[in-house]
From TrEMBL:
Pfam families assigned: Abhydrolase_1 (PF00561)
Protein source organism: Rahnella perminowiae
Gene Ontology molecular-function annotations: hydrolase activity
Protein name as annotated: Alpha/beta fold hydrolase
Keyword Hydrolase assigned: yes
Domain AB hydrolase-1: 44-155
């Protein structure tokens, strides 16, 4: 596992790559800009799967130009950050959300800050950012979630005295859903279930079409470039409702993710027209995942699907996020609706100071890559409107 940094040719002007050592047991690789002037307010950007800190490359200079010290880490399990075990059989507890909060806290502290002025989490980075704001609002004084709504922490059963219930009730909701999906015609499988399997890493690391073709198709099919993305709210978390989503979300049972996206391989002309992920930029992803594989990045999905590993989150049962918050999605991103009901729970219960739900035209799942200028405008307007931006090191 390498601990080297990117060369300057890989990055936009003004963005640098460096290692921050000794952060909650990790050596964290970050991309940053706006570091030249001491005391700039800190903007922390947390990526998702199968992204990297590099996914923020278009946004970082825009926020730095607005006066922020912008930092995007490779999260635990990803890229050039080291200190985690790259093995399917490794303990999963280090990849739990509470420990990922500690990763973020440790990084903020290592950088010499007492709080962030802006915290943004995308995809898998969204629940990490949400729990950061839930657990430590004194440090994370505002939060922006992208593509993955936060429905709130898991709750304890309420007012159950006098009701006969088993002393231990296994959480078998996911098993029931998996069985129902498998009974569809054709049989289907939730992508998170697939990503939790032992085979998923090797499937994606060594796909039959090659890593380059797989990643190009995966980024393409989840973007606004693919005309098949027509997301809409789903009524219930049932097999028939979920099956309305594209196959990269609700896969055909038995197919790998590379097999699933292969039919949607973009043409040469479509690749040339893709200005948000050029061939040299895609080459960075290919180099990183060819070196590390995907297992570290997949561990979080295994945690999310294991109720025992999420039991600690019940510490926050009944708690709400009480700092200014915003949700941003892409108009062509199914992520907004992939967990039926989560968007409404976030808006009505999970957050008490929600500025709104904004969908950006011309963006699919990769909002910060597809529409960085529009995203930066919304982020900066949100921080200005909240009046909570920290313009000092604190």
């Amino acid at each position: 596992m390498m601990t080297s940094t990117y060369d300057d040719l890989t990055l936009p002007e003004g963005v640098r790559s460096r290692m921050i050592h000794g952060v909650n047991g990790l050596d964290v690789h970050i991309l940053e800009a706006g570091y030249e002037k001491p005391g700039q307010p800190l903007a922390l950007l947390l990526h998702g799967f199968p992204d990297l800190a590099y996914g923020w490359r278009h946004l970082i200079p825009l926020l730095a130009d607005a006066g922020y010290h912008v930092v995007a880490p490779d999260q635990r399990g990803f890229g050039r950050t080291t200190g985690w075990v790259n093995d399917y059989d490794a303990p999963l507890a280090p990849f739990g959300l509470l420990n990922m909060i500690r990763d973020a806290l440790g990084l903020v502290s290592a950088l010499g800050y007492q709080r962030t002025a802006m915290l943004v989490g995308h995809d898998l980075g969204s629940p990490v950012a949400a729990y950061c704001a839930l657990a430590r609002p004194d440090i994370f004084s505002s939060v922006v979630l992208m593509s993955a709504p936060f429905p709130g922490p898991p709750a304890f059963p309420f007012n159950t005295v006098g009701i006969e219930t088993p002393s231990a009730q296994p959480n078998n909701e996911n098993h029931k859903l998996a069985a129902a999906l498998a009974e569809l015609d054709p049989p289907r499988e939730h992508y998170q279930q697939y990503l939790s399997t032992r085979r998923a890493n090797d499937d994606m690391w060594h796909p039959p079409q090659g890593l380059h073709a797989f990643l190009r198709a995966f980024f393409y099919v989840k973007s606004a470039d693919w005309p098949g993305n027509k997301p809409h709210p789903l009524k219930r978390r049932t097999a028939t409702d979920l099956a309305q989503m594209p196959t990269y979300y609700i896969m055909e049972l038995g197919k790998s993710m590379p097999e699933t996206v292969a039919p949607f391989q973009p043409s040469d002309d479509e690749v040339l027209a893709c200005k948000w992920l050029t061939a040299p930029e895609l080459a960075v992803y290919i180099q990183e995942y060819d070196r590390t594989g995907f297992q570290g990045a997949l561990q979080a999905y295994r945690v999310l699907s294991d109720p025992d590993l999420n039991a600690g989150l019940r510490l926050y049962s009944g708690r709400t996020i009480d700092v200014p918050s915003l949700f941003i999605g892409g108009t062509s991103d199914w992520g907004t609706y992939s967990a039926p009901g989560a968007l409404d729970l976030m808006r009505t219960k999970a957050m008490t100071k929600m500025a709104g739900i904004e969908l950006i035209d011309g963006a699919g799942h990769w909002i910060q890559q597809e529409q960085p200028v529009r995203l930066s405008e919304r982020l900066l307007a949100f921080i200005q409107e909240t009046g909570r931006a920290n313009h000092s090191n604190g």
